[in-house]
Amino acid sequence: LRMRRLADHENRGIRIILTGQAEDKDAEGLEIQANLLRLAKQYPDVLTVIVGFDLLLGQRLYAAGDAFGMPSRFEPAGISQQIANVYGTPVIAARTGGLKDFFDTWGGVGWSHAPGDSVQMANLMIEAAQIHRDSPQQWQELVVQATKYNSSWDSRILEYEKNVYGPAHKN
Fold first, then answer.
1. pTM as predicted
2. Taking a C-beta distance cutoff of 8 angstroms, is the pair 24, 56 a contact?
3. How far is the C-alpha of 143 from the C-alpha of 97, rounded, in Å?
4. What's the pLDDT tens digit per position in 12-38?
5. Torsion of CA 44, 49, 54, 55, to 10 degrees
């Protein structure tokens, strides 16, 4: 239903490229991957799924994309969304692990949704596409804000030490 909405006439021009791969032992992930491949065949003008990892392709997608989606169910640190912001690409990501920190603590630019909530993610993708289409000035401000994202440890080391080692020093 959400793919149909993404593909409908009012959202023409939305193009989703997914790259990644479920782990062999992750039955749920493999099922999601299979469903995405099926949807890609059903909606070839909207969705492309590339199974696997290709560093050069990833860099090109960061640079060329208008938005970066990261629907992780689990994310211990989250580097990809930081790279996307450095490239000037707003992020649409699940609010889990390092992705939650990206938005709440480190000032990441984009939108977040509950982990595993594909409906909310699709709605945020549509919202982002509408801003991109209808409010180019607002979109450009998001892009510029994203390029200013500071992923350097220099800006975080004191906060990290306080949060990680501070409690240990109190014991």
1. 0.80
2. no
3. 24
4. 667 888 888 888 999 988 998 998 899
5. 90
